[in-house]
Amino acid sequence: MKLKVKITGPTVHEVGYRYFLMNKALDLGLQGFYAGNQIEDGQQQVIAYIEGIEDAVAGFKNAVGSTWPENADVSEISFSDFRGYVMDAGDFAQTYTAHQLNKAIHLLLDMNRILEEINGNLKAVKYNTDMISQIARDTKEIKEEIEPILKL
User: Fold this and answer.
1) How would you class 55 by CB atoms within 10 Å of its CB: exposed for 0-12, middle for 13-18, buried for 19 or more?
2) Of all residues in the chain, what percent carry a pLDDT higher than 70?
């Protein structure tokens, strides 16, 4: 059995919806799964195609119709029969994960650069703190040396 799922709303992109759907499909043992983002009439959409035994497809339909990612804002979910090719669920999982990791590499590199800057700033703060302590000790020593002279 095959099914097309169309999820429409103001915020259904960039909230983890495709991973959410993929995990549901894999948990239910669907043989086929594909999900992609699109814009139609100014509305964000996630389109998913699934293939599997009737019970698994019904379970997917029920789960997707009643739950979604935390930050998603969904206005409509529709289901329709589908007769075309549906990618193997495991192949989609592998391909999509590689795609997402490729996007994340740049973010991770930026985070590493920022952490290095923070570390450098922390070293500067520690150096300045150490200098303040040294200046306080030096000031105390100078004061101790000058006090007897001032009492004369």
Assistant:
1) exposed
2) 99
Give CA torsion, residues 143, 147, 150, 152, to 10 deg: -160
Dihedral angle sign, alpha carbons of residues 72, 76, 80, 85: negative
Question: pLDDT digits over 14-71, tens only?
Answer: 999 999 999 999 999 999 999 999 999 999 999 999 999 999 999 999 999 999 999 9
DSSP state, residue 16? S
Per-residue H/E/C for 74-106: CCEEEEEECCCCCCEHHHHHHHHHHHHHHHHHH
Indicate whether 152 pLDDT > 70. Answer: no
Q: Which of 41, 33, 32 is nearest to 8 (CA)?
A: 41
